[in-house]
Amino acid sequence: QDGTIIHVSHHSPYNKAGYPTLIGEGVTVGHGCIIHACTIGDYSLIGMGACILDGARVERHAFVGAGAVVGPGKVVGEGELWVGNPARPARTLSDKEIESLHYSADHYVRLKDEYLG
Hints:
The chain has one helix spanning 95-116; strands at residues 5-7, 22-23, 28-29, 34-36, 39-40, 45-46, 51-52, 57-58, 63-64, 69-70, 75-76, 80-83, 88-92. With 117 residues, it is an alpha/beta fold.
């Protein structure tokens, strides 16, 4: 959404590792996020203002809460909710919450189709 910044990193004398940014299918990214050289799995949701940093992985069906900072190299497991700064696991998502991740992605596609149609 609006104001989100997406970057990659490259190998250099000051950064031993370079990482691509890979965003899966059906991902919802809220307003004002920083998605920096990380991987986000299918049907995950990144809350408003969250930061996902170098080498971090957000697995399928995961939820990163608003304002959370997922540190370099951290792994947000499948079906987990992470919150805070630094982000930490809070709990496992319910089946209904996982369904809502699919709804969110589908809803934004419908809005796009409506406004472009």
